[in-house]
Design a protein that fits this description.
The chain is mostly helical. It has helices at 4-15, 20-27, 31-39. Residues 41-61 are annotated as: Disordered.
Length: 61
């Protein structure tokens, strides 16, 4: 099992254009592991936008 730190390194280096063979060699991972990490989703962004509801100032008449 690959640590989260190594997964982060693989994703970062891949985004910077480093080829997967070099990533495999530097981190000591297999090509299958590197490919799986690259194509797996990273942690989902936890974006919670506030919900605003504006009260009516005047009646709905």
């Amino acid at each position: 099992m690959t640590s989260e730190r190594r997964k982060e390194m693989v994703r970062t280096w891949h985004e910077r254009g480093i080829d997967s063979e070099t990533i495999c060699r530097l981190l000591g991972l297999s090509a299958d592991e590197v490919t799986a990490i690259i194509f797996s989703k990273s942690e989902p962004e936890k974006r919670s936008e506030p919900e605003f509801t504006e009260p009516t100032l005047f009646g709905d008449d």
